Amino acid sequence: MLKIGDQVPAGSLQEFVETEGGACSVGPNTVDVAAALAGKTVAVFALPGAFTPTCSAQHVPGYVAQADALKAAGVDEIWCVSVNDVFVMGAWGRDLAVGGKVRMMADGSAEFTKATGLTLDLTARGMGLRSQRYSMLLVNGQVKTLNIEAAGKFEVSDASTMLAQAVAR
């Protein structure tokens, strides 16, 4: 399992881009994780699923609300990672009006999540293999903080905890 001091595993995620710009075209774009993290401080939070109650009502909205404060604390980007397809993540971002404050990263086949060792088996609830709820602060791809939630909890991976950790860094 991923731990503080580790480099985030190599791999790719998918992001649905609404407007063309830079190297991104409209629609699904593959993001090379190592390349995207190089030279940046990134707050990453992961959650079990798009459009689920806690994720939609608290987790993502908290990071959207704290985005400016996180950036003022030195965070270059905020990523939301979930084991969902890129189209669902794009629709969820539109629904929650993330407005470019949070990058909605899809891990459709759970390959990135498996590589971190932070999987959650929700097969019994009809959701299959998902991600545990967690957050981490990455500097140049290295894990500086890692906040893994206990089963069914939402206490340590929230935006306020991440902001306090970013400020203290």
What is the CATH superfamily? Glutaredoxin
Give the CATH topology: Glutaredoxin
Q: Helical percent range?
A: 25-40%
Annotation, overall tally of beta strands: 9
Q: SSE order, as H and E? A: EEHEHEHEHEEEEH
* Biggest sheet features: 7 strands, mixed
Termini separation: 23 Å
Mean pLDDT: 94
Name the CATH class: Alpha Beta
| Unreliable residue stretches | none
Strand content: 25-35%
Number of domains: 1
Shape: globular
Please, how many helices? 5
What structural class do you assign from the helix and strand content? alpha+beta
Structural notes for this entry:
This protein has five helices and nine strands. It has 169 residues and is of the alpha+beta class. The chain has one domain: Glutaredoxin. Helix 3 links the parallel strand 4 and strand 5. Helix 2 packs parallel to helix 5. The radius of gyration is 14 Å and the shape is globular. The two termini are 23 Å apart.
Secondary-structure blueprint:
Elements: E1 12-17, E2 27-32, H1 33-37, E3 41-47, H2 53-72, E4 77-82, H3 86-95, E5 103-106, H4 111-116, E6 119-122, E7 128-131, E8 134-139, E9 142-148, H5 159-168
Parallel strand pairs: 3-4, 4-5
Antiparallel strand pairs: 1-2, 1-5, 3-8, 6-7, 8-9
What keywords describe this structure?
30% helix, globular, alpha+beta, two-stranded antiparallel ribbon, 5 helices, 169 residues, single chain, Glutaredoxin
Question: Brief overview, please?
Answer:
By secondary structure, the chain is an alpha+beta fold. It is 30% helix and 30% strand.
